[in-house]
Amino acid sequence: MSWAARRRFIILLIVGAVFVAFLTTVGIATFYKAPSCSDGKQNQNETGVDCGGACQYLCIEQQYPPTVLFTKAIKNGEGRVDVIAKVENKNADAAAKNVRYKITLYGSDQSLIQEMTGILDLPPSASVPVFVPNIPSGKQTIVNAFLDINQSSLQWFSMSSNTSIVPTVSNVKQIGTTSAPRIEAILTNTSVSTLTNVKAIVLVRNDKGDVIATSSTIIPTIPAQGRATATFTWNSEFPEVPASIEVVPIVPLL
What we know:
Blueprint: H1 3-31, E1 67-75, E2 80-89, E3 94-106, E4 112-122, E5 126-136, E6 144-149, E7 156-158, E8 168-176, E9 181-188, E10 195-205, E11 211-222, E12 227-233, E13 244-250
Antiparallel strand pairs: 1-2, 2-5, 3-4, 3-6, 3-7, 8-9, 9-12, 10-11, 10-13
C-alpha cells in the first residue's frame, strides 16, 4: 500500500471514529434517561418504585395506613345533616397532604342517599377531625355514614413533627341557653407571625364518649403572640347533656 493510500485510510478511520462517536452521543442523549423519582423503576437508592431513598415521598407499604376512627351523621334541621369523622395517622415520622376522601350516607334500607368528597392533611401522630355541614338528606333518615380514604392519593413524606403554626386551645366553656347553646374557646398564637383564617372544629361528647353535637368556625385573625376567641353556636338544644368538649384548630401542612 502506497503512502498516499495509507494516509487516505487513516483519514477515513478518523472520520469514521468521529462519526461513530457522534452517533453514540446522539443515541445516548436520545434514548438514555437518568434515574428519577418518576420513571416507574426502582433505581438510585430507592427502597421501592419511585419512593424512599433519594425520593421525596416514602413508600406506602412501609407506613401505617390512615385509620378512620368513626363517622357520624348528626341531624341539622329538616332534610340536612352534619357529618363528623376522625382520621388517625399513626406514623410518627410521616405526613401526607391533600389526601382525598369520600363520605357516603345510607338510609334504613341501605339505599344510597348522598356522597360527598373532600381533602384533608394528615400530620404525624395526629387524629384529624373532618366536618362537613349541611349535607342534603331529603326526607330519609340517615342510618349509616362512612368515610373512605382514597388510597391512591396518599403520598407520605418525612416529617417528625408538625411544622405548621398551630394555635393552642384553652378556656373552653359552654355558655348561652339550653335552647341556643354556645361554646367559646381561647386560641393562642405563640409564634411571631400573624395567623389568618384559622379553622376550628368543636366536638361535643356525652358521658359515653359519643359525639352529640359538632360545629366549625373561622377565626379571621390571631395576632402574633396574641389570642382570639373561637365561638360556636347552635339553634337548638343538645340532645344530651355534654360531658366533654374538644376544640381542634385545623391548619394546613406546610
